[in-house]
Amino acid sequence: MNTLTSRLHQAQPYALGLFRIVVGLLFACHGAASLFGVLGGAMGGGTVPAGTWPGWYAALIQLVCGGLVLIGLGTRGAAFLASGSMAYAYFWAHQPEALFPLQNGGEPAALFCWAFALLIFTGPGALALDSLFGAKGAQGTDSGSGKQDTPVAA
User: Fold this and answer.
1) 3-class secondary-structure state, position 141
2) I need a surface site. Which of 4, 43, 57, 105 has the fewest CB within 10 A?
3) pTM beyond 0.85, yes or no
């Protein structure tokens, strides 16, 4: 393995942790905007009325799951819920308008869905609270064996 590849491999958990932090922050900001009217509010201003389906519940999922992913606590479970909510948003709200995300305005939903799906399988990476509390699988170790997982390469 050459030097560059070796260094990139060593930095992989930190790059993944930074990816998790940015995605979680952006997702939480969407929820905060919809629930509290901050950062421009929902749809350019205001808030989503409390208890309305699906907007208020989606905003709550965005805020809570985004915050959990941001700090790296329960990352895989939060990412699973967030990914599912974005898949629902895409297929329920955007896809009936047109087939492709570029045509139907569903690019953010599709990107968030796949970003969270990635975190389900990779885990939180470095700089996560999961590692402080000893969550199994938080650092990509095999459950119980202590053997480091090797990434699948194509």
Assistant:
1) strand
2) 4
3) no
